């Protein structure tokens, strides 16, 4: 019994010392691994916000190892192995597939995620309030109900809306379910339109015949958004988006979060783990506050589609033009 208690005591000391060991390290010696699922404006911004925040806190950008999986699941697995084998002090995972790949490979290295809508349903944490695992982070859950309300404000005559998303993305499915309910609550008839990969995006977009379309924060569609918006705009179908970079790439409008700010939140969480000895297990998943959400309207498209912006929205809108 004494041996058992002694062993437990030693184990407890070892476990409790994990975060304090990192906290006692010189900032110039701290190593951080980053895995990003794919390249598109929103995820790039989430990385920038994270890196900028850590540099601001005194950590060296040279000690941040960045890897991009280019939207490939097998690449995620390979990169996850590489990062875990390198034994960094912390890993930052951007987007659900990247986070899931890392979470499978380590239960010891602290993992901070972002651009993950619901870490609990993605099985990264036991609950968003009490993670209970080595994973925590900043959710990119957008105000879907508010976005559907925005659709109705900008397009009062709309009766039907296509909800377009990637069926295999847990994040997208989660948001699509909310969008369908929100559409009905706003007197709209929702029509689900799912894509499986980049090869069927254009054909699915061409099949949309509704009065408007809604796309959540979906990685595959975000990476291919110019093709989607070109097809929808040619058909005169306004697109309400999950986040601002989609609007800048040809969507009509959004009321959504800002991914640089999301990355900054993740960076602040990482700082607490690295410098203050905080543990991912007890750090609740964080969200951007309502004040960080921005109303973004594409001025070019509003004019082309004949959409008149109500005065109440015009006063608080951030106007953009389509990227060339």
TrEMBL record:
Pfam families assigned to the protein according to its UniProt record, in alphabetical order: ABC_sub_bind (PF04392)
PROSITE patterns in the cross-refs: PROKAR_LIPOPROTEIN (PS51257)
InterPro entries per the UniProt record, alphabetical: ABC_transpt-TYRBP-like, Peripla_BP_I
CDD domains reported for this sequence: PBP1_ABC_unchar_transporter
Family annotation (PANTHER family): ABC TRANSPORTER, SUBSTRATE-BINDING LIPOPROTEIN, ABC TRANSPORTER, SUBSTRATE-BINDING LIPOPROTEIN-RELATED
Identification of the protein by name: ABC transporter substrate-binding protein
Organism: Intestinibaculum porci
